[in-house]
Amino acid sequence: MSETVRIALADIDRVARAALVRAGCDEANAIATSDVMVRAERDGCASHGLFRLPGYLASLRSGKANGRAAPVARAHAPGVVRVEGDNALAPLAMQVARTAVAPLARAQGIAAVAIVDVLHFSALWADIEGLVADGLGAFCMTAYLPSVAPAGAKTPFFGTNPFAFGFPGEAFIFDFATAATARGEIQIAARDGRPAPAGAGVDTDGRPTRDPHAILAGAQSPFGGHKGSALALMIELMAGVLIGQPTSAEAAREEKALGVCDGGPPRGGVLMIAFDPDRFGDAAGWRAHAGAFFAELRALPGVRLPGDRRRLERARIAREGAAVPRALWDEARRAAGH
Ligand code: NDP
User: Fold this and answer.
1) How high is the pLDDT of residue 22?
2) In angstroms, how far apart are the furthest CA atoms of the chain?
3) Which of 87, 105, 154, 260 has the most CB atoms around its CB within 10 Å?
4) Pairing of strands 80-89, 110-119
5) Which residues are catalytic?
6) pLDDT band for position 2 (50/70/90)?
7) Closest Cα to atom 48 of ligand 1
8) b/e for 119-152, b at 16 or more Cβ within 10 A?
9) Is 233 within 8 Å of 149 (Cβ atoms)?
10) Distances, alpha carbon 70 to alpha carbons 7, 25, 29, 32, 294, in Å
11) By C-alpha distance, which of 58, 48, 309 is closest to 188?
């Protein structure tokens, strides 16, 4: 296990922003990208916190990411907005997408936003949390690079393809990779010399293993066998084919052709769908109904809902600071010139 140091969130933000600016980001891109890492650290999601900084920096340095991108939202169809990402790191484009989709969802009941030509490397809950806090529901999904073998296969083909869903009122959000384990968790296990969780993946011969290095060389497994495999496939279609963006396999071929296999996020798309529960026929009752539903659910012994851990961690880490591996903190500070 690597040695960790407790760092105040404000210091993580300061260092991450400076490192991003040094690698070519303008202020707006640096602030948005640092913000998603800081929020992940704040909520105890280390695999999408400062751990992602080297990947973001690598994509800026290779020229794959445009640190001065100015994503633009354009109406595309009555219920569809497109955000042209301009090869931005995704966080700034996701801000533009939320601003564009929220009024449309309120006006129409439901609206979709296709965010294209962005490099997504963060936790999806961060992309929809603001919408949910403002009273909207949301779905969000994105593809990645081939990392997961479809059920029955041993070759990586699907990305780890995360999927998030949020419902307002109780501000309920779940967000998970369709891989059995997020790739970042396996990379952290490899870094720390720990075994990967059981079921995380297979070696190059397709044999199940807990050796994180063997999984990274072989393939991750989808969660829930053929069920997670089908969800991963759906995400390739919805965040790739539907919106004219590369699938995970295509993104890898593109990176190879351009010589930008830099370890950072690939160019690709994100699909977000927002809906307004006030527009679905129970405007007067849905909040109380959801409240009663969650009260009954929470009363069941043993229930712990998605998001509960994050909320608990948020209060503690805001107070105590985040535990960051010393080597990563030193690397971030060097990149920031601090
Ligand atoms: P986890 O398995 O850690 O968690 C998935 C969800 O389940 C969370 O909402 C979590 O809530 C909840 N949860 C976890 N354990 C329990 C439990 N015992 N009971 C009830 N709920 C539980 O997620 P993954 O490892 O699959 O993914 C981690 C992150 O990686 C996600 O944020 C995802 O967006 C991101 N990701 C991003 C990618 C990208 O390309 N940008 C690619 C793949 C993943 P809680 O947080 O409160 O524990």
Assistant:
1) 98
2) 57
3) 105
4) parallel
5) 47-48, 185
6) confident
7) 309
8) bbbbbbbbbbbbbbeebbbbbbbbbbbbbbbbbe
9) no
10) 31, 11, 9, 12, 40
11) 48
Cα(338) to ligand 1 centroid in Å equals 32
Closest ligand 1 atom to Cα of 179:
26
Whether the pLDDT of residue 1 is over 70: the answer is no
Q: Would you list the domain boundaries of the chain? A: 4-179+222-282+308-312+321-336
What separation in Å is there between the alpha carbon of 175 and the centre of ligand 1? 5
Q: What separation in Å is there between the alpha carbon of 336 and the centre of ligand 1?
A: 29
Ligand 1 atom 23 nearest Cα: 176
| Number of residues that this document lists for the chain | 338
Report the predicted TM-score, pTM, of the whole model to 2 decimal places: 0.96
Q: What is the C-alpha end-to-end distance of the chain, expressed in Å? A: 26
pLDDT for residue 183? 87
Torsions phi, psi for 322 (to 5 deg):
-95, 145
CATH topology of domain 4-179+222-282+308-312+321-336: Ribosomal Protein S8; Chain: A, domain 1 (3.30.1370)
